[in-house]
Amino acid sequence: xxxxxxxxxxxxxxxxxxxxxxxxxxxxxxxxxxxxxxxxxxxxxxxxxxxxxxxxxxxxxxxxxxxxxxxxxxxxxxxxxxxxxxxxxxxxxxxxxxxxxxxxxxxxxxxxxxxxxxxxxxxxxxxxxxxxxxxxxxxxxxxxxxxxxxxxxxxxxxxxxxxxxxxxxxxxxxxxxxxxxxxxxxxxxxxxxxxxxxxxxxxxxxxxxxxxxxxxxxxxxxxxxxxxxxxxxxxxxxxxxxxxxxxxxxxxxxxxxxxxxxxxxxxxxxx
Length: 271
Description:
The chain is mostly helical. It has helices spanning 23-50, 52-70, 83-99, 101-112, 118-154, 167-196, 202-207, 209-223, 229-268, and strands at 74-77, 163-166.
């Protein structure tokens, strides 16, 4: 029996002929992408911890404005010993998520489309460059409607009463409003990238427009727990517009792809 030399390299394991990844490979890929995303969030959280004081001041501004707008006392209340620390920790993690958005958005796309080709890597870069501004725009939209919603919700309290708001509950409300809307603004870009990668067709996107609008309205109703319907539609209208913009881009891409395929097939026909 032939003995292999120590210097001789071991034969590499053959990849799947169809290029698909096994379940174990998917889990390894998921762990790698998740570690990189969490590392980026952790680094951003350190910055968020250092900025927690001015952020807390900005968060308390809508509550402080209740005194001048409604003529009643209002304040954020820390209900237990550890709540101040917990609140700063939550702020740090949230800032980390926002600052690391280019990292975890790219890792999410790279996991959805493993084994990226050169063109798909270009799509991934385009996804990050487009998704990050939209994510930040969504966060800004949530922050913009926050004071309006705080004023309306606290306005239901009877006159001559004091609004003593739990700091933890208030921040959970802000977190759900700001970050969730930021993520929702990114979803249309994901639809476009899935279309460019050949995973989702424009017809499939357009066929689901009723479901998409229903989900958007329900999401805005949950993310803006306000009796003011204006706040809900203020967020729903740009999200619906982004959905139809994604569908339009996907339609144009599919038509160009179909024309290129027809031209290629015509060139193959022997006269």
